[in-house]
Amino acid sequence: MSLVQAARQAESAEAFKHIPIIDLETVSSSDPATRKSLGNAVREACMNVGFLYITNHGISEKTIDDAYKASKEFFSLTLERKMQLDITKTSNFKGYNPVLSSNNDPENAGDMHEGFEFGWEELEVKTNDEKRAHDGAMAGANVWPKDLPNFRGAVLQYYHAAVALGKKLFPLFALALDLPENYFDDKTRNSAAIMRVLHYPPQTGPVDARVIGIGAHTDFECFTLLWQEPGIQALQVLNARKQWIDAPPIPGTLVVNLGDQFARWTNDVFKSTVHRAINRNGVRRYSIPLFFGTDYDVMLEPIPSCVSAERPPKYEVVTAGDYVKERLKATYGY
Ligand SMILES: O=C(O)CCC(=O)C(=O)O
Ligand SMILES: [Fe+2]
């Protein structure tokens, strides 16, 4: 079945109720047929749901735990200290955004979370950072808290582990699209990946429906790898019938969800699915998304097999960097 036919079938099918769990144990198998069958499972998830859980993802518990503890420590700093890293003082969307300063859903009045955002950087500290000049629209260095010695190392360690995992996923997405496994290699040379650590204060009592943890939105890049704090339900995914489906944290898994770059590239054969998070658990919640994009200079042109006479191109062609920058501007309002 062609990609376009498969997409049409998925679109007319019953709206999804469950998010599939995919075991990555065989992701690096030397047997092409084994990798292809994993690719097929990914294809189904990408066309039907746009969300999946992965097990055997290879990021160690220690790496996760260190990043989690470091982010908790960061958010426990005074607002004044965190505001020294105010994201709106940087030209490249790096740094801290306080509660209610971002807004992911234009219908809403602000997101009830605070976050800290950074991009690629080597683990070893460089005195003369080259400012990632090749990143065009998104060029520029990260900013770091000065007097929190373990924070940078812990979150960057997680970043590098997640990027290594993301690099293993791209060949699977290529297989899912009947493309050569190395199709994305020359489009993902510079790790255009943005990571955020997030803190959602609990919302109790009467809650303004226009102020929730993170308003309904799609992510901007190809896909997101999301770690959620165990034991706390907050994330929800919208299915085609406009029903919100819970996406609870499942021990040992990460969530993978597709974003707009893949939707644009595949002419919506891959779904960039709307999601939101609401923390009504009475306790704080932490999460760590890493948004994995293509290099910022890559044009988001539809893959030829995702276009046909009855499925003409849906999106204007733009560069990945310009697209992400526009969306970040809208979210952070600067
Ligand atoms: O915290 C979560 O579970 C979701 C975060 C999210 O959707 C985002 O940062 O784009
Ligand atoms: Fe998101």
TrEMBL record:
GO molecular function ontology, one term from the record: metal ion binding
Keywords carried by this UniProt record: Iron, Metal-binding, Oxidoreductase
Any single Pfam family the record assigns to this protein: DIOX_N
Keyword Iron applies: yes
Ranges for domain Fe2OG dioxygenase: 191-294
InterPro entries, sorted: DIOX_N (IPR026992), IPNS-like_FE2OG_OXY (IPR044861), IPNS-like_sf (IPR027443), Oxoglu/Fe-dep_dioxygenase_dom (IPR005123)
PROSITE patterns: FE2OG_OXY
Family recorded in the similarity comment: Belongs to the iron/ascorbate-dependent oxidoreductase family.
Xref: PANTHER family: FE2OG DIOXYGENASE DOMAIN-CONTAINING PROTEIN, OXIDOREDUCTASE, 2OG-FE II OXYGENASE FAMILY PROTEIN
Name of the molecule in the record: 2-oxoglutarate-Fe(II) type oxidoreductase
Species name: Sparassis crispa
